[in-house]
Specification:
The protein has 372 residues and is α/β, with parallel strands linked by helices. It contains 14 helices and 15 strands. It has 2 domains: 192 residues, NAD(P)-binding Rossmann-like Domain (Rossmann fold, 3-Layer(aba) Sandwich); 165 residues, Rossmann fold. The radius of gyration is 21 Å and the shape is globular.
Length: 372
């Protein structure tokens, strides 16, 4: 198979979809890998490193899309890329369709095959290609939140871990999945007073057993959320409904009950956000303030640490990419059930129900394409 790796052109996105080591694993199995000039530079992987691995470097993004049977990316295609995508071409990347209707319609129009990292799913309902970036984002949420709690950046002027004789900051985490768990570990390690909320009592029991003493668990409901946001300094939104829009847990009216200078980090913003006032921001312009509450809503948080993120992403995606390259997307999905929910759009049909429901568009069962 011919695999193309374009350079990411989303604002401040420095990750690349494949490391030279990952490319070498594909090449030694007989596949061809083409990488756009300087695509890996932001992550610390130079063209020469790819060439040593057997990769062919192409000068432009147009060249990569033109030659490739499978495009591997990190973030969803943006508007400038829509017309480059060919009918029948496989795109293997993060899409988060439910948060952006124009992207969904563009991919339907392209008649490409869209295999979304974020909805590849194991039998135990875990999301193996979302986990590594969720781990990064969860840890970064605390790092960024602690930073924006500083007074010059609009925060309350409170040190996350406090000092002897002064209480630490209070951190509230909404959602006890991968992002929330990683955020709790980080915040606890910095000495904060942490509360993590979820609707899954079994998950809360597990976390109560394994978390440090400065992490408390609480059932998530509107009453408890309204109560806790009034005296917490950093609030991290980390809920996820795979492939669908995030539920709004904090509404606009709740902001007025928060302490001035409270910081909210909405990690769920790439799925529409779990805070009503959230809107996607960029690393270049990461925050905005509403009702004296600082909102950090960068939709590609791991892009700020591209070396770590690219290595973590390749570790997770490569085994699947090898299967797809060896067998083609259809046979790979027939033989590996984990790939089936990753298929979101095929040849103009939306085959992931949550995406179709998000925009009241027609849904086609994926079985139409996977039947022999």
């Amino acid at each position: 198979m011919i695999i193309g790796i374009p350079k990411e052109i989303k604002n401040n996105e420095n990750r690349v979809a494949l490391t030279p080591a990952g490319a070498q694993e594909l090449i030694k199995r007989g596949h061809e890998v083409y990488v756009q000039h300087t695509a890996g530079e932001g992550s610390g992987f130079l063209d020469e490193m790819y060439e040593e691995a057997g990769v062919k470097i192409l000068p432009t993004i147009q060249d990569v899309y033109e030659i490739a049977e499978m495009i591997m990316k990190v973030k969803e295609p943006i508007e400038e890329e829509y017309e480059l995508i060919k009918e029948g071409q496989l795109l293997f990347t993060y899409f988060h369709f439910a948060s952006y209707e124009p992207l969904t319609k563009a991919m339907v129009k392209s008649k490409s095959i869209c295999l979304a990292y974020e909805t590849v799913e194991r039998a135990d309902k875990s999301l193996p290609l979302l986990i590594p970036m969720s781990e990064v984002a969860g840890r970064m949420a605390v790092q960024k939140g602690a930073n924006y709690l500083e007074k010059p950046l609009g925060g309350r002027g409170i040190l996350l871990g406090g000092v002897p004789g002064v209480l630490p900051a209070k951190v509230l985490i909404l959602g006890a999945g991968i992002v929330g768990t990683q955020a709790a570990w980080m915040a606890a390690g910095l000495g904060a007073d942490v509360t993590i909320m979820d609707v899954n009592l079994q998950r809360l029991r597990y976390l109560a057993d394994v978390m440090p003493a400065n992490v408390n668990t609480m059932m998530s409901n509107e009453f408890n959320i309204r109560k806790l946001i009034q005296n917490h300094d950093l609030i991290i939104g980390s809920i996820l409904i795979p492939g669908a829009k995030a539920t709004k847990l904090i509404t606009r009216d709740m902001l007025k009950t928060m302490l001035p200078g409270t910081v909210v980090v909405d990690v769920a913003v790439d799925q529409g956000g779990c805070i009503e006032t959230s809107r996607p921001t960029t690393h270049q312009d990461p925050t905005f303030v509403i009702d004296d509450v600082v909102h950090y809503c960068v939709a590609n948080m791991p892009g700020a640490v591209p070396y770590t993120s690219t290595l973590a992403l390749t570790n997770a995606t490569l085994p699947y990419a090898i299967q797809i390259a060896n067998k083609g997307w259809k046979k790979a999905a027939q033989e590996n059930a984990e790939l089936v929910p990753g298929l979101n759009i095929i040849s103009g049909d939306i085959v992931y129900q949550a995406v179709a429901e998000s925009f009241n568009m027609e849904y086609t069962p994926v079985s139409k394409y996977l039947a022999d």
